[in-house]
Every structure is written in structure tokens, then in C-alpha cells.
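Table S2 (continued). Query chain:
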Amino acid sequence: MRGRVDRLSPLLRMTLIAFAGLALTAGALLFVGADATDDWFSWTIEPPLTAAALGAFYWGAFALLVTAATRSGWRAVRPIVLPVLAIAITLLVITLIHLDRFDMDSLFGIFWLCAYIAAPPLLIAGIALERRRGPGRVEPPMDRGVPPLGRGLRIALAVEGTAMLIVSALMLLAPDTAADFWPWALSPLTSRALGAFILGVGLVAVGVAREEWIEPLAATAVALITLASLQLLAVAIHGVDLGEDELATIVYVGFVAALLATGAYALARASRAFDSS
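Corresponding output:
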């Protein structure tokens, strides 16, 4: 017989859902409106490929947050929520550093700043509440008899996550140097904005690779598939924005394709585990 499942607190669940809605909207403005960020976003982003790439990250975040909000408790979302908090804090710091680049005379600029001021304390409050509630008296049934992630999947997530953490550190701390190795032109602001999302995805991948529990893998797999597919689509649509360094483009596309393959395999493994529970 199945035991009682310890659900997420309403505060954290509603926070994840609210930010999922914001990520969905931002993704649409950036991915669909990549050529019109001067009119429809918080700051003008050039070239359009950068806007589309950021939009792909937001839509990946949407998939991650929505899937996480449906999970069964803190243990299932811990490897996801903490990286989301890291993204929110990093983007707030980046915004304050580059505030002169934002259109603070528009609703888009004001809303961006307010959203990232509000996000960290709401997430911290939700996390603190979950930690005070404890793990619950009965563990979710997915803990029983579920196969582990498997060595190959753990290695893939750990290697890809570590690579993303290294790249994000360079993009955040030395954006001009990072721009020299990126497949298309980046400004310090866009380098750091992309770096913030890469940091979060890297933390999720490394965190899930360390988990003994397979349930967090479902949200991660959906997010990786969404993110990687849209990144490849962005390159296909805005390929004219790519620079002349073909090796950088090959490495970028190859790595994103590897993320897509990892996400697809992870989703298949998570689906089999849920079917067997």
C-alpha cells in the first residue's frame, strides 16, 4: 500500500508556478521576438541569436519549474530549487552591475528589476519553510524499489554539468575573455546573462547526478530536452549571426546535441522507473 506523500508547501509551490509563468512570457518575448527586443524587452539585445538563446533558457526554466511544482516534496525538488535560487540571485547582481543598459523608462525594465528583487526572498522563504517542515514521517513510494540513475547517466550529467559550471564562471567573471571563444558576438551583459543560466543548468545537472532518488530526474530531463532543442532551433533560425570561428560553432552545437541526448535518455529512464513503481 502506498504511504502518505509529503507535498510541497503552498508557498514554494505557488512561487514556482508564478515564476514559471514569468519564464514562459520572457521566453516568448525573447525567442519569438528576437528581432524586436528594443521595443518589447527590458533591454536591447544584439544580435538576435543572443535573444533567442536567452529565450530558450527561459523556456527551459519554464519546463523545469512547472515539472518541479508537480513533484511530491522537498526532497524531489531540492536539486532544482537551489539552482533556480542561484540563477535569480546572479541575475539580480548582473542587473545592478549593468543597470545603465536597462530601459528603466519602460514597464519592461521596471518589471524586470522588480521581479528579480522579489525572486530571491520568496525562494529563500519557501526553502526555509520546507527545511523547517522536515522530510515527513512517510517517504514517497518512489523511493521503494526504484532503479538508480545508472553509472553512465550519472557520469554524463556530472561531466556536462561540470563543463557548464566552468564556462559559466568564465562568462560571469571574465565576460570579455569568454566572448573571444563564443560562437557569436556577446557584450559583457549578455555574456553574464547567459552565464547565469548556464550556471543554473550546470548546478542542476551536477546535483541530480549525486541523487540516489530518481524522481528529480524527470523535471531535469524535460528541461534539458526543451532547452537543447530550442538552442539548436535558435542557431538554425539565426545562423547568420554566427561568427567566423567554425570550431567554436561546432563545439557549441555538439555540446548542445549531447545535452539533448542526455535529456532524452534521462526521460526514458525516469519514465521506466515511474511505470515500475
